[in-house]
Design goal:
Blueprint lengths: L6 H10 L1 H20 L9 E5 L25 H4 L5 H11 L5 E5 L9 H10 L4 E5 L8 H6 L4 E5 L4 H8 L4 H19 L5 E7 L10 H8 L4 E5 L6 H14 L19 H14 L4 E5 L4 H9 L14 H4 E4 L4 E3 L9 E2 L5 H5 L2 H13 L15
Parallel strand pairs: 1-2, 1-8, 2-3, 3-4, 4-5, 5-6, 6-7
Antiparallel strand pairs: 8-9, 9-10
Helix pairs in contact: 1-2, 4-5
Length: 386
């Protein structure tokens, strides 16, 4: 449903986007009832993330795709270049518009897909909520189109001041490019007298920025951002990764777990220092809405970073995401999880509604309901969302 730790964040959404928030609440209730029924079926999803492309123009250090340990660095080129055409993506939106899912465009860098802007226009023409998760490098170039299309939200990655951010993301001048792009979008909104797209900054806590996290308060205020979310690092112990692989080899033969391999590394954080930084930020955030995700207590923070077998105490130890959301990948496969290559089916072969409660989907949900969590789920952000 909505974890109690996320209520403040949900109320914020309700104030900014009341129709969207009420639709979310209604769909979560239906999903919760289906989850407890235990048959593996689910109401049509609240949210669909379209993974537009594997391509990215950055090499961010902590990224599981293209970062220092990223799996895309060694992936087969022909697989990495696969993308659904603009026509195929448009058909998918038309196929799903009847139940009004919230659509997120993601990647890679979604704005590298030649049909991204047309797809946003199509989504908004159907009255659906649309969010773009972006590294921000192209928002200045496409600022007029993003505003005119009626995009609801832009989630933009920013990890620190100019020096810190550019070093983490591997592109000199990137911070300045992003800041200029945000300024351009804000100017266009002011000129038109509109509030959207909302500007949400996303800061990933990592060993290269956590010592100066408080700098992001000034960055967010200078950018006139609507909010900033500090994301705890996604990482996985090697033994957890191996256990996860063994589990899937046994219960879902042929399903690759290699996407999780990109997150197998040591976090390198001093938790005592991180705890102080978080406390300072929470106490000094005055002019921008600040959220930490997941919203851990001090004890949970210690366990999350220090215990490879950590199970959350403040969040329910079960995953409901496959009853609520899914991912459409560049090859047309519909997956329940971003980092597990299990497929419910392919939209190039059958309609989405047939896939959503098809045999592959219901079998997966029944197994997950029985287990509560799969081994790698403890590090997945979706566990803490629903």
């Amino acid at each position: 449903m909505i974890p109690l730790r996320n209520i403040r964040r949900f109320f914020r959404k309700t104030m900014e986007q009341p129709a969207y928030a009420m639709r979310v609440a209604a769909k979560r209730l239906g999903a919760l009832l289906s989850y407890h029924a235990g048959r593996g079926n689910a109401p049509l999803p609240e949210a669909i993330t379209i993974f537009m492309t594997h391509r990215c123009n950055l090499r961010c250090k902590m990224c599981g795709q293209w970062g220092d340990h990223g799996v895309s660095r060694t992936g087969a080129k022909e697989e990495l270049l696969k993308e659904l055409s603009t026509e195929q993506l448009t058909a998918f939106i038309e196929d799903t518009a009847s139940f009004m899912p919230n659509i997120t465009l993601f990647g890679g860098e979604p704005l590298l897909h030649r049909g991204a802007l047309d797809l946003i226009r199509t989504i908004k023409s159907k009255g659906m909520h649309c969010l773009v998760i972006t590294n921000g490098s192209l928002i200045g170039r496409f600022a007029p189109e993003l505003v005119e299309a009626g995009l609801d939200e832009l989630n933009i990655s920013l990890d620190g001041n100019e020096e810190t951010h550019d070093a983490i993301r591997g592109m000199k001048g990137l911070f300045s490019t992003i800041s200029g792009g945000i300024s351009g979008i804000n100017a266009l909104k002011l000129e038109r007298g509109i509030r959207k797209p909302l500007i949400n900054l996303q800061c990933t806590i990592n060993k290269d920025n956590y010592g100066n996290l408080e700098e992001m308060l000034n960055v967010a205020e200078t950018c006139h951002a609507n909010s900033i979310t500090f994301h705890h690092l996604i990482f996985l112990a090697g033994e957890t990764f191996e256990t996860h692989k063994e589990y899937f080899n046994k219960h879902f033969p042929g399903t690759s777990s290699e996407d999780w391999k990109g997150f197998v590394f040591d976090h390198g954080l001093d938790i005592g220092l991180l705890r102080k930084k978080i406390a300072f930020i929470k106490s000094n955030a005055k002019n921008v809405f600040v959220n930490f995700y997941p919203n851990f207590t001090d004890t949970e923070l210690n366990d999350y970073y220090g215990n490879p077998r950590y199970i959350p105490s403040g969040y329910a130890p079960r995953c409901q995401s496959p009853w609520i959301a899914c991912y459409l990948f560049p090859d047309g496969e519909v997956r329940p999880c971003l980092n597990i290559a299990y497929s419910f089916g392919n939209v190039q072969k059958e309609p989405f509604k047939n896939i959503w409660n098809g045999p592959a989907a219901t079998a997966y949900r029944r197994r997950l309901k029985k287990e509560g969590l799969f081994p790698a789920c403890i590090r997945c952000t979706e566990l803490y969302r629903y």
